[in-house]
Amino acid sequence: MVVGLISIGMLFGCSKGYESQKTADDLKITLSVDRYPLVKGDNMLSLKVVDAVGKAVTDAAVNVRYFMPAMPGMAPMDFNTQAVPKGDRYSFSANVPMEGGWKAEVSVARQGKPASTATFNLDAR
Ligand SMILES: [Cu+2]
What is the residue-level pLDDT of the chain in tens, covering all 125 positions? Predict the structure, then answer.
């Protein structure tokens, strides 16, 4: 029974989604992805932004810079994309050309306010 449960856990563990939350100024930004670690190629990710009272912020301009920190013998990999509003979230796709550790810098710009930024660590395999 215990062995059975463990193997089911490992089975789902392989294709489990991932969610991470960061605070940026008065905002909470949650990044989610269905399939994690990221894969080489296209990955669909989404972001949820809530304000101090827990209300979803749906009218901001959300930019994502995803990059691999400098590595010896590797050309810099640095990409920018605009996340698209979708319901109470923002979605974007990240085309990851290399396995390893990536960072996603999410910048949320609301009307009349300076942009709020949070950085997420992501793993690609
Ligand atoms: Cu690299």
Answer: 555 554 444 445 555 799 999 999 999 999 999 999 999 999 999 999 999 999 999 999 999 999 998 889 988 899 999 999 999 999 999 999 999 999 999 999 999 999 999 999 999 99
CA of 87 to the centre of ligand 1 (A): 34
CB-CB contact of 19 with 30 (8 Å) = yes
Q: How far is the CA of 35 from the centre of ligand 1 (A)?
A: 21
Distance (Å) from CA 72 to ligand 1 centroid: 8
**Domain layout of the chain by residue ranges:** 14-124
Q: Measure 125 CA to ligand 1 centroid, in angstroms.
A: 12
CA distance 93 to 41: 10
Could you tell me which CATH number the domain at 14-124 has? 2.60.40.10
Show Cβ contacts of residue 85 under 8 Å, excluding neighbours closer than 6 positions: 58, 59, 62
Q: What distance in angstroms lies between residue 44's CA and the mean position of ligand 1's atoms?
A: 20
